[in-house]
Amino acid sequence: MILQQILRLSSLFHSAVATHVRRNIGLSAIVFNKAKELDPVQKLFLDKIREYNTKSKQAGGPVDAGPDFQKDMNESLARLQRAYGEGDLTKFPEFKFEEPKFEETPK
After folding, report:
1. What is the CA angle 67-64-92, rounded to 5?
2. For residue 91, what are the CA distances in angstroms to 10, 35, 88, 96?
3. pLDDT surpasses 80 at 70
4. Domain-by-domain residue ranges, the chain?
5. Smallest Cα–Cα separation from 74: which of 59, 63, 90?
6. Per-residue confidence at 54, pLDDT binned at 50, 70, 90?
7. Using CA atoms, how far apart are residues 34 and 39, in angstroms rounded to an integer?
8. What is the pTM of this model?
9. CB 38 within 8 A of CB 46
C-alpha cells in the first residue's frame, strides 16, 4: 500500500519535473537563437535590405529605376485615374468614421 503511494507520487513528481524542464529548454532555445550570430545567408539578406533602404531614402523612390519604369508607372496611374475617378492615387486614402448616435428607447 505504501509502495503504491510512493510510486504514484514519484510518477507525479517525474511528470511535473519533465514539464518544467521541457518549458525551460524551449525558452532557453529561443534566447540562444537570438543571442547567437546570424548564419551567413541571413546576414547577407539583412545587409542587402538595409543597403536598399538607405539607397531608397537617398533617391527618394525606387532604386535603379530607369525611364521605362517611370513611363509604366505614369501609364498605370492614368489608367487607374480613368477607372476610379479623381484623387491622388499615390497617397493612402484618409477614412473618417463617425460614431453612431444611439438613442435610448423608453421601456
Report:
1. 80
2. 66, 40, 6, 16
3. yes
4. 1-36, 38-81
5. 90
6. very high
7. 12
8. 0.39
9. yes
